[in-house]
Design brief:
Elements: H1 8-20, E1 35-36, E2 43-44, E3 52-56, H2 57-62, E4 78-82, E5 90-94, E6 97-98, E7 110-114, E8 117-119, E9 132-139, E10 153-159, E11 168-176, E12 180-192, E13 195-206, E14 210-212, E15 217-219, E16 222-233, E17 239-250, E18 258-262, E19 270-274, E20 283-284, E21 292-308, E22 311-329, E23 340-362, E24 367-389, E25 421-439, E26 444-466, E27 469-470, E28 480-502, E29 505-518, H3 529-535, E30 542-555, E31 560-580, E32 587-610, E33 613-621, E34 623-629, E35 653-665, E36 668-679, E37 682-683, E38 693-694, E39 699-708, E40 711-718, E41 726-730, E42 733-736, E43 741-749
GO biological process, one term: iron ion transport
Organism: Sandaracinobacter neustonicus
Subcellular location: Cell outer membrane
Length: 750
């Protein structure tokens, strides 16, 4: 039985301190009556028969959540962190459904949406949160109403809209350890009675908390600049136009990997303990003295809503673009010590989406419906190279990671081999959907929905001998290939809910059956020329059938909220990427491994036992097992029966506990809060190798804020007890979680 982390050692002192500071304050509704649009119409959170979590701007500020990577700890059965080696890639698993490889040929099964526009790539999706109205997290398949490939769930970011009434805004500056300096600002500017503009900007810099001992340079630094503008025009009561544009420039250094300690008892095996060069987990001895990470992402959207009697016709147009050039070490070896595998990628991506949607009521208000058409087009192009070289000598034996082809990119001795190739992917997806909720009495409702999808992808790959020069094989043929494949799918959803009300309490009971679909993929990591040109085929689509029942309840005049759900997911044709070690650089291969069943319980609680004293948190369970193995994943060296493999990021038990207290102090308001999240042990890699086993992932955060008038000062700490564990790993290296971060933030509203 995996060990469960006991939070009492750390959290107990925190809660006692909070309770001791408590004093009566003005009563507030602890439950927070958040209005959400999970079903494409405005509803109170507790009226939506879907297991979901919503965080509004107040809670984001209370917990000092400044980036999307803090979201996972606040949502049951959601793992959300930085992807392996990247600074802005999102690694997302929800209820055990996710994608571990960020390459563009693998679509994320958990959709991230910014103002209803899909962010199709995990690279660049780990957004800084600025001027956010709320975040909605929908657990389980959402294929009926949401874009494409949301078989695991959906994460919706809704930004604040411009306001017509007055000029206003906010600005803040923050200072933190390791040389961190943040600046953020938002301005709301009415341009006319029916036109308003809202602009936001941020800068985040940090010199880094690690050192590469090879050349003495700091690593894991942060350098992000971002901006956003939104324009709202409402010429009359029926018509509104909401246009946005955003851009983010990320020049942060790639995360440096730390090697795992070798297992002294088994040759060639590793433990899950990190090396500590010169006594520190944040010291690295790497030949990669010139890491590269330049990511630029952005987009624009236009939403037009036209309201008729009982109907709203909406058009949602979106454009997203991404360029990402990265080069970093995947082996963490020092010069002259073994070999180094350097991954180089130069990616260019753009996508266009268009949705037409009709919402309204019918049957004299007894039915609510939504129907629409959705089109999505995406183009990806990525120059890729993998260096397998053995640099020798001192710090001068370095890799030039901005050079994919020329000999100086190799070791000073000239030793090394390159495999430059260019995978490309063109995607076109069409779908039509409809959903209706009909009242079946004064308390009951029935919902039925369906999405029909047709998707076509074309995968092209060419191997290069020089820039823009295709390699000529020994038989005189060009080393290139094109594969095209189409898929069709029907994804239904059926749900029933029943309203219960009593004196001082209310509840909504619901049950649902739904299907999610993730379209097929291609092995964009395949570098074996014979395989890529002669044997590679499309990877079959995944599907998830989810069966769920739950109850959402409010008690004690809304001072206690308890939501509970239980789900069973039948996960079919699971596609995964894994590494296989052989001669040369480790090969990454992708296949459909089989089917699994994942089931679990989720419970969320928010309470205000005393005025101004808030308690909250959640617990979640996951039980997973393979029900069918289509092909061997190649893990027999680690488990006798591969059916016993534990799926990735599926801890059997996880939880969060949080508390806060607010009281008047002098001329202002003092708030002290904290949260602790943890999970039982889990595996990061499908083969369950020992080095990818995470036994203890407990993290504590704390905040102190003092508000007086339009001013506020916040002191926050993330990873308060400086617990370092593996956040992601591949092969013999992993990426430790960030160390304790302290931040002092001053904010003014005007």
């Amino acid at each position: 039985m995996p060990a469960i982390v006991d939070p009492r050692r750390h959290l107990g002192c925190l809660l006692l301190s909070i309770a001791a500071l408590h004093a009566p304050a003005e009563a507030a509704d602890a439950s927070g009556d958040i209005v959400v649009t999970a079903q494409r119409r405005a509803q109170k959170l507790q009226d939506v028969p879907i297991s979901m979590t919503a965080l509004d701007s107040i809670r984001l500020a209370d917990q000092a959540i400044l980036n999307l990577d803090r979201l996972g700890a606040n949502v049951p059965n959601l793992h959300l962190s930085r992807n392996f080696g990247t600074s802005s890639g999102a690694l997302v698993f929800m209820r055990g459904v996710g994608e571990g490889d960020s390459i563009f040929t693998n679509d994320p099964p958990v959709g991230i949406y910014l103002d209803d526009v899909l962010l199709p790539r995990s690279t660049g999706a780990l957004l800084d949160l600025i001027d956010i109205e709320r975040i909605e997290v929908l657990r389980g398949p959402q294929g009926t109403l949401y874009g494409r490939n949301t078989s695991g769930g959906a994460i919706k970011l809704i930004t604040k809209r411009p306001e017509f009434d007055a000029i206003g805004g906010a600005a803040d500056i923050a200072l933190g350890n390791y040389g961190r300096f943040d600046a953020r600002a938002t301005l709301n500017l009415p341009l006319a009675e029916t036109v308003a503009l809202r602009v936001s900007a941020l800068s985040r810099d940090q010199r880094g908390w690690g050192h590469n001992l090879t050349n003495g340079m700091r690593v894991n630094n942060q350098d992000v600049k971002a901006g956003r503008a939104a324009l709202l025009w409402e010429p009359d009561s029926r018509l509104s136009l909401f246009a946005t544009a955003d851009i983010s420039l990320d020049r942060s250094g790639p995360r440096f990997p730390q090697g795992f300690r070798a297992n002294p008892d088994v040759t060639g095996r590793y433990t899950n303990e990190f090396n500590t060069p010169d006594g520190s987990i944040d010291n690295f001895r790497s030949a990669d003295t010139n890491p590269l990470n330049r990511t630029e992402t952005g987009g624009a959207s236009l939403r037009i809503d036209y309201r008729l009697e009982g109907l709203t016709l909406s058009s949602i147009s979106g454009y997203r673009a991404l360029t990402s050039r990265i080069g970093f070490d995947q082996t963490a070896n020092a010069p002259g010590v073994g070999s180094n595998v350097i991954l180089l990628q130069d990616q260019k991506q753009h996508s266009l989406s268009q949705e037409l949607q009709l919402t309204g009521t019918a049957l004299n208000g007894r039915a609510d419906f939504v129907a629409g058409l959705f089109y999505f087009q995406e183009r990806n192009d990525q120059l890729t190279a993998v260096s397998f070289a053995t640099p020798i000598g001192t710090a001068d034996a370095r890799f030039r990671n901005n050079d994919f082809f020329n000999a100086p990119s190799r070791a000073a001795s000239g030793v090394g081999t390159w495999s430059p190739y260019r995978p490309q992917l063109a995607t076109d997806s069409w779908s039509a959907y409809a959903s209706a909720t009909v009242k079946a009495g004064p308390r009951a409702s029935l919902t039925a929905g369906l999405r029909a999808t047709s998707e076509r992808k074309r995968y092209d790959v060419e191997f290069l001998s020089a820039p823009d020069t295709v390699l000529i094989l020994s038989d005189g043929s060009r080393a290139e290939r094109s594969i095209a494949q189409s898929w069709q799918d029907l994804s239904p959803r059926f749900a029933a809910d029943y309203r219960l009300d009593g004196k001082g309490w209310s509840a909504l009971a619901y049950a649902s059956v739904s299907k999610g679909f993730r379209s097929g993929s291609f092995d964009g990591r395949a570098r074996n020329i014979d395989f890529a040109l002669n044997r590679q085929q499309a990877i079959a689509p995944e599907s998830v059938w989810s069966y769920e029942a739950g109850i959402k309840s409010d008690w004690l005049a809304n001072r206690l909220r308890l939501n509970i759900d239980y789900f069973i997911n039948d996960y079919k044709n699971i596609a995964f990427s894994a590494s296989r070690v052989g001669e040369g650089p480790p090969e990454i291969f992708r296949q459909n491994v089989g089917d699994a069943r994942i089931q679990g319980l989720e419970a969320e609680l928010n309470a205000e036992p005393l005025p101004g004293f808030i308690l909250g948190g959640w617990i979640a369970t996951l039980n997973d097992r393979f029900t069918r193995l289509k092909s061997s994943p190649g893990c027999t060296a680690f488990v006798a029966n591969e059916r016993d493999l534990d799926l990735r990021f599926t801890p059997s038990f996880s939880y969060q506990a949080r508390a806060s207290v607010e009281q008047r102090l002098g001329p202002g308001q003092l708030r002290i809060g904290g949260d602790y999240s943890a999970a039982s042990s889990y595996n990061i890699a499908l083969c369950n190798e020992p080095q990818h086993f995470v036994p203890n992932s407990g993290i504590a955060n704390a905040q102190i804020r003092y508000e007086f008038g339009d001013w506020a000062v916040t002191l926050s700490a993330t990873n308060l007890f400086d617990h370092r564990y593996n956040s992601g790993s591949v092969g013999s290296v992993g990426y430790p979680t960030e160390p304790r971060q302290l931040l002092v933030q001053g904010r003014v509203r005007f």
